[in-house]
């Protein structure tokens, strides 16, 4: 298996490598899910609503990278939600862990090869929009691929058309119908006031931003800031999947430089943990509405 990028192929893994990884994962379950969920930092609690979960640790998949961040356990999990088979990815890969961009999003290609058609991507994010508070949620309706704009787009390199087209439109990246369904769930459950729709910007991390950086990124028009998601969205769309993106707002950017408290990963995990039960309830309803 060629897990290097020496030939400048887009993914570093050939089409055949990705199919072989998918076949390996499929050996663990007879379920054939069409819905995939990527759990953001601390959001693995979504896995608690899975009936008959079957975990597939990344270590059993040949040449699959490991997840090194607290709050990301490092496994795929098959299971059922509301009578529908789903595949969870618990343990995303981040650019700041030292993985090249093509490797960060490679699991999305494996999910596609497994049969996933609808990709639900979650993350923990900082609120740049002054209206957002920790514990709020934001449906991502557009994004700013900051690494992409500066030459680190996940699709840089040779393109294998079996994965998707060389040039990819991103104007319709986020599925509106899925967004409306999620909104409906939040309103039905009485939590409509926690929900926003907005623009997510990805930065490389692992540093959180300075006040000056937050101000610039807010001026760009971003509502929430994080260190993931966009490479997965781009590869999901390249693979012709329907994509839904959700940010859990875990902290409010200190645009006035007024706070004496320094933001930590533990703060992010705590808010994610506090929101776990609500997210589980919402996801049970949401998945029942997803085709
Ligand atoms: O994997 P996500 O984007 O949810 O994780 C966020 C960004 C960093 O990885 C981490 C910072 O606490 O949370």
From TrEMBL:
Catalytic activity: 2'-deoxyinosine + phosphate = 2-deoxy-alpha-D-ribose 1-phosphate + hypoxanthine; inosine + phosphate = alpha-D-ribose 1-phosphate + hypoxanthine; 2'-deoxyguanosine + phosphate = 2-deoxy-alpha-D-ribose 1-phosphate + guanine; guanosine + phosphate = alpha-D-ribose 1-phosphate + guanine
Coiled-coil stretches noted in the UniProt entry, renumbered to this chain: none
Nucleoside phosphorylase domain mapped to chain residues: 34-287
NCBIfam families: PNPH (TIGR01700), PNPH-PUNA-XAPA (TIGR01697), PRK08202.1 (NF006054)
Similarity field: Belongs to the PNP/MTAP phosphorylase family.
Record's function text: The purine nucleoside phosphorylases catalyze the phosphorolytic breakdown of the N-glycosidic bond in the beta-(deoxy)ribonucleoside molecules, with the formation of the corresponding free purine bases and pentose-1-phosphate.
UniProt name for this protein: Purine nucleoside phosphorylase
């Amino acid at each position: 298996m060629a897990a290097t990028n020496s030939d400048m192929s887009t993914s570093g893994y050939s089409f055949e490598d990705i199919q072989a990884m998918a076949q390996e994962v499929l050996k663990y379950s007879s379920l054939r899910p069409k819905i995939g969920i990527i759990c953001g930092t601390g959001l693995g609690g979504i896995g608690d609503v899975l009936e008959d979960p079957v975990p597939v640790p990344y270590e059993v998949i040949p040449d699959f990278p490991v997840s090194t961040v607290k709050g990301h356990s490092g496994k795929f999990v098959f299971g059922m939600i509301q009578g529908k088979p789903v595949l969870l990815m618990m343990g995303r890969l981040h650019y700041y862990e030292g993985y090249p961009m093509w490797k960060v999003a490679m699991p999305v290609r494996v999910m596609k090869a497994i049969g996933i058609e609808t990709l639900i991507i979650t993350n923990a994010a900082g609120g740049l929009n002054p209206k957002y508070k920790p514990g709020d949620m934001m449906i991502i309706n557009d994004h700013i691929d900051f690494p992409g704009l500066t030459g680190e787009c996940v699709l840089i390199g040779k393109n294998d058309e079996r994965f998707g087209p060389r040039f990819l439109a991103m104007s319709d990246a986020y599925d509106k119908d899925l967004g409306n369904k999620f909104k409906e769930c939040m309103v039905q459950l009485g939590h409509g006031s926690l929900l926003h729709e907005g623009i997510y910007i990805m930065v490389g991390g692992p540093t959180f931003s300075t006040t000056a950086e937050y101000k610039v990124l807010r001026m760009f028009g971003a509502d929430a800031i994080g260190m993931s998601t966009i490479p997965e969205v781009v590869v999901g769309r390249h693979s012709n999947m329907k994509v839904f993106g959700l940010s859990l707002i875990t902290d409010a950017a200190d645009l006035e430089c007024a706070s004496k408290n320094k933001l930590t990963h533990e703060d992010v995990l705590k808010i994610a943990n506090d929101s776990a039960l609500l997210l589980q309830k919402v996801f049970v309803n949401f998945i029942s509405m997803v085709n």
